[in-house]
Amino acid sequence: MIVNLETDPRTKLHQLQSWGTTFRHLDRHTLIDLATNPNRRVKNINVRLDAMLFLRESGCVSSKEVEPLFRLVKDEKDFPIWVDADSIVVQEVTHEKNHEDLPYKQKLKRDIEENVAILRSWAALMVAEFGQKTQIYKRIKQEFITELKEILNKIATDPVFVNQNTHKTSTYFNGFLKALYLADKQSAMPFITKYGIDLSDLFPPYPRKAAK
């Protein structure tokens, strides 16, 4: 099953949180490997998303975890955003039969691209939110900032990734932008200004607990 996160992100993220409970017995090394290792034959993108979501909820990143996460953010060769519809074998990806026609593959192609983009944006957020205290972050910080700016520019100009409404409603665009803001506010401000994005879109307030 491929999750189209752009349709209703809150519902889909809730689904992923439910599915992610299956990873509670795995150690962090295995989770990082599941989420970021291009040599693993993981055909269902939800497996990678589940592992990444569970890692994010742990709220910490070690120095040795920053490198594979950053590699996932920047390496489009191993984790391409662009997907060739002709190369998709629908049944291998979704276990659905009788859907090898091109129109269905085109839809599936879009869903896969969005899922890979959200996976990479979560990796960027993990580096920006939890990796800044590590030594390796200090070495890669400038490259990290440059990479995030290039990704945001590509999303903003690539018709495949232009949301039907506006960029600020795109889950993965906001994810990369939030990571950039955390890494370097000055680099993020041109994107925030250009697309009229309110900071509350990137950093929604925590819901207040009801008074007892």
Could you provide a short overview of the structure?
The protein is mainly α and 212 residues long. It is built from 10 helices and no strands.
3D architecture notes:
It is a single chain. The protein is an all-alpha fold and 212 residues long. It contains ten helices and no strands. α2 crosses α3 and α7 (135-157) packs antiparallel against α8. The longest helix has 29 residues, at 102-130. The chain is globular and about 50 Å long.
Q: Please give the radius of gyration in angstroms.
A: 17 Å
Number of strands: 0
Largest sheet: none
The helicity comes to 55-70%
Per DSSP, the total helix count is 10
Amino-to-carboxy terminus distance = 42 Å
How does the overall form come out from the CA principal axes?
globular
- Tell me the β content: under 5%
Which series of helices and strands comes N to C?
HHHHHHHHHH
Coarse structural class? mainly alpha
Low-confidence stretches: 1-9, 207-212
Q: How much is the average pLDDT? A: 78
Using brief descriptors, characterize the structure shown:
212 residues, single chain, mainly alpha, 61% helix, disordered C terminus
Q: Helices, strands, pairings?
A:
Layout: H1 9-19, H2 28-36, H3 45-58, H4 63-74, H5 90-94, H6 102-130, H7 135-157, H8 171-183, H9 185-194, H10 199-202
Helix pairs in contact: 2-3, 2-4, 3-6, 4-6, 4-7, 6-8, 7-8, 8-9
